[in-house]
Amino acid sequence: MTTLNTTPLAPLLERLFHEAAEASPAMSAAIAGFSDEERAQLMRSKSGYLDLYARLKDVPLPVSRETGALLYMLARGGARNIVEFGTSFGISTLHLAAALRDNGGGRLVTTEFEPSKVARARRNLEAGGLADLVEIREGDALQTLAAELPDSIDLLLLDGAKALYPEILALVESRLRPGAFIVADNADHSPEYLAHVRSPASGYMSVPFGDDVELSMRLG
Ligand SMILES: C[S@@+](CC[C@H](N)C(=O)[O-])C[C@H]1O[C@@H](n2cnc3c(N)ncnc32)[C@H](O)[C@@H]1O
Question: Is 112 in the pocket of ligand 1 (CB under 6 A)?
Answer without folding.
Answer: yes
